[in-house]
Design a protein that fits this description.
With 347 residues, the protein is α+β, with helices and mostly antiparallel strands. The protein contains 13 helices and 18 strands. Among the domains are: 4-83 and 92-101, Alpha-Beta Plaits, CATH 3.30.70.20; 106-168, Alpha-Beta Plaits (2-Layer Sandwich), CATH 3.30.70.20; 266-343, 2-Layer Sandwich (Alpha-Beta Plaits), CATH 3.30.70.
């Protein structure tokens, strides 16, 4: 598993594990010094920018470790090297860290190794091995069903579909989810970002009107990643309680409530020579689309001003970098890879 050293100072170090991070910004909300920065969540989740969810300013950090305690997936760690001759300090147990207090996803002996949990797991962290027909003459299937606890986000999909109730899952948070149908531009950034497959587009028939994005309440862990990723601020996620029994030590005061807004950590780049001037990126851009429904409907050339992207003299130009929502929807639709996001230095 990849480890990034965010900062090291004397005998202390701050480590980040990007493979565990889900882009929820809980650590950002928890940090009392505002040292952690999150941005470009949609683009990172889609694999369309070369960066991680979290970065650090490394200016005022006191290595208090509250970010590591607040993280629901264990993606952060604050370490202190042992000094020679110093007395050993007992490590804080799971009662101080949310990801430890949650406990593992458990599978009991009643499991029939059917593999339904494997099929629905949004993180691909369940595996059935050594599956074979029972050798004792009974009509059973033997095998091993194993959960990768390091990758599990405790969404509860496996528990919900298990036909014999063999799986038990504990969730990190309770909360509220709200999406503004009028603000939402159906860009699917939230769907691509959600670590729990708790958001999706419904199928619809001819003439049928359905909501743009549907929320699966029972799969949601109220992490807030969708809210942080939304380029137009259409989603609000509010944590209302920390569910595991633990020593909260002020965590509730810092992380309960609405997920924080992201920092702009990317820059839109364009290749004028590669651009066809088709305008697909201009139309599909959620920031552009929310500015005028007429533009969102595809009327590219009948509006004089656009907030983010525009076609000028046959090629796309960036009107205002600061309005970008860092979702990379423009990159997804471009047929010639003429527009993309690059990492912006955190200040």
């Amino acid at each position: 598993m990849r480890e990034v050293l965010l900062e090291q100072r004397e005998d202390k170090s701050h480590a980040y594990f990007p493979d565990k991070c889900i882009g929820c910004a809980t650590c950002v909300a928890a940090c009392p010094k505002g040292e952690l920065v999150i941005g470009s969540v949609g683009a990172v989740a889609r694999g369309l920018i070369d960066k991680d969810f979290i970065e650090k300013r490394s200016e005022a950090c006191v290595f208090c470790g509250i970010c590591a305690k607040a993280c629901p997936t264990g993606a952060l760690a604050v370490r202190k090297a042992e000094k020679e001759g110093a007395k050993e300090t007992p490590e804080e147990g799971g009662e101080s860290y949310i990801h430890k207090a949650i406990g593992p996803t458990l599978i009991d002996e009643s499991c029939v190794h059917c593999g339904l949990c494997v099929e629905v797991c949004p993180r691909g962290c369940i595996e059935v091995t050594d599956r074979e027909l029972a050798q004792d003459g009974s009509l059973k299937v033997e095998g091993k069903t194993v959960v990768d606890q390091e990758a599990c986000v405790h969404c509860g999909w496996c528990e919900a579909v298990c036909p014999v109730d063999a799986i038990s899952v504990k969730k990190p948070f309770s909360g509220n989810f709200f999406r503004d149908e009028l603000v939402c531009q159906a860009c699917r950034t939230c769907i691509d970002t959600c670590p729990c497959n708790a958001l999706f587009n419904r199928d619809w028939g001819p003439g049928e009107i359905v909501e743009k994005v549907t929320h699966r309440k029972d799969a949601c862990i109220y992490c807030g990643a969708c809210s942080v990723a939304c380029p137009v601020g259409a989603i609000t996620v509010e944590k209302t309680a920390i569910l595991p029994e633990m020593k909260k030590k002020g965590l509730e005061k810092r992380i309960l409530g609405r997920a924080p807004r992201p920092t702009l950590t990317s820059t839109l780049m364009t290749d004028r020579d590669a651009c066809l001037g088709c305008g697909n990126c201009v139309i599909v851009c959620p920031v552009n689309a929310i500015s005028d429904p007429y533009l969102a409907a595809g009327h590219l050339n009948e509006l004089d001003k656009k907030p983010l992207l525009e076609v000028v003299n046959g090629a796309v130009v960036v009107v205002n970098q600061e309005t970008c929502g860092s979702c990379a929807t423009c990159s997804l639709i471009c047929p010639t890879e003429a527009i993309w996001l690059e990492r912006r230095e955190v200040v």
